[in-house]
Amino acid sequence: MENVVSVAIALLIFFTAFEIAAEAVTGDAAAQPYSGWVLLAVAAFIPVPYILGTYEVNVGEKYNSPSLIADGRQHRVDVLSSSVVFFALLGQFFGIPLDRIAAVIVAIFIIRSGWGILKDSMKTLLDASVNYDTLNEIRTIILSDPKVSSIKSITGRNSGRYIFVEAMVEMAESDFEKAHRESERIEQDIQLRVQNVERVIIHYEPRKKTHLRYAVPLQNREGSISDHFGEAPYFAILDHDVEHNRFELQDTISNPFVDVEKRKGGQVAEMLLEHEIDVVFVHHSLSGRAAGYALEAAGVEMRATSAATLAEAIDEVTGRRGEEAGASPR
Q1: Backbone dihedral region for residue 220 (phi beyond 0: left; psi -120 to 50: alpha; all else: beta)
Q2: Is 314 strand, coil or helix?
Q3: Would the pTM of this model clear 0.70, i.e. be above it?
């Protein structure tokens, strides 16, 4: 309703300008005599509408009230029109006919003011985006969160004094429950720090990785894949360039927990997590085991393979490029 009121004010301003211009063209040209105190009175009242208008605009901006801002702007324009009237009266006092010219100038000022009010109000009524400074402030708040990798898109709209924001972000978090809690925290932060934000919706998706790190349990350094995860003497660490479908790095690490009696699988999983593994090749499922729980909680994919050697596992990866994009990133 406030924006509808602002549009009504703008239309009334246009009508006023039309009446002034019509009177200037067709009105009685006979000048009425007046004394010098009229000039003093007009000069004294010139600052009044500016002070009132500035106060209204400040209050309107504080509470994001379009109708108050529109009314304040209209009052501030009165300063210009009153100044023109003063100089027209001054010219007429000295016998210079400036009254009609001054009336046209006043009408132009009024039209300009009405157009600004109408344009701002119609932007809101037409569901236009919020101003750049507000969107930039919201963008800065989102990017300041350490879990946010990037912003794919951000939009905002006004509805009266209220602002509605929607953003699509990439998060360095594959656990959707954790990502959901993080997005809720960002939404609350925006509502606390940006005035008049009524609702914020953050859509999130895991950050797409250009490289994936594989771990393969080995029976020996020659590259034979071990049937057992926790008892594998070695692990091959492979870096795969997903975009170009090629391996860039290969390293073999020893398993320091191979002779441990208890929790060897869980400790091996923790060791691999320190190497930031994304995918683990296994011959047998780790579901229901400590190692499986640890890897699953970290977002690591456990991929079953029938490959007998490391070379076959590499061929299996490079031959499945179409499925590579679906691998769960950490």
Answers
A1: beta
A2: helix
A3: no
Residue the block writes with tokens 């070379």: 311
Torsion, Cα 164 169 175 177, to 10 degrees, reads 0
Given a cut of 70, is residue 81 above it in pLDDT? no
- Cα 262 to chain centroid, rounded: 50
Q: Which of 308, 234, 306 is nearest to 268 (CA)?
A: 234
34-71: string of b/e by CB count within 10 Å (b at 16+)?
A: eeeeeeeebeeebeebbeebeebbeebeeebbbbbbbb
The predicted structure's pLDDT at residue 237: 92
* Tens-place pLDDT, residues 168-214: 988 876 667 778 888 889 999 998 998 888 889 988 877 667 788 99
Can you tell me the distance from the alpha carbon of 276 to that of 131, in angstroms, rounded to the nearest whole number? 42
In angstroms, the CA 60 to CA 64 distance is 5
C-alpha 263/C-alpha 270 separation (Å) is 11
DSSP secondary structure, 40-52, as one string = HHHHHHTHHHHHH
Pull the structure tokens for residue 71: 């009314």
Within 8 A by CB and 6+ apart from 76, the residues are 49, 50, 53, 54, 57, 113
User: What pLDDT is recorded for position 225?
Assistant: 92
How high does pLDDT run on average in the chain?
80
| CA angle at 188 for the pair 187 and 189, rounded to the nearest 5° | 90
Angle between helices 2-26 and 66-93 (to 10 degrees): 20
Structure tokens at 317: 């990866």
Phi, psi (deg, nearest 5) at residue 164: -120, 130
What is the Rg, in whole angstroms, of the alpha carbon atoms belonging to the chain? 36
What are the backbone angles phi and psi of residue 239, rounded to the nearest 5°? -100, 125
Contact, 211 vs 240, CB < 8 A?
A: yes
**Smallest Cα–Cα separation from 16: which of 89, 66, 56, 74?**
74
3-state secondary structure of 220: coil
